Fold this protein.
Amino acid sequence: QRAEEMLEQAERRSATFEDEIRSATQRGIEARSGIRAEAMKKMNARIDEEREKMQARLDEALGQIDAQRESALSEVNTQADAIAEATANKLLGRAA
């Protein structure tokens, strides 16, 4: 009977130990998940920040391209008008 009591006591301690292991494992998983979530949050914030910076640079570059395009078109129109006028004058015999 003494051996049986010792066996039951050992089984109870074993069960308690297993419960503690499960509890510690669960706390570890929760801690890891929290750390991972915080890291993802920071990474996503940085990605969003970089995306906004890149969008601002892209918008600026597109604005510059539009301005250069307008300037080039204006210059082309001016030159086309000058060529058309020179051609008209030559055709009409009024070459300068």
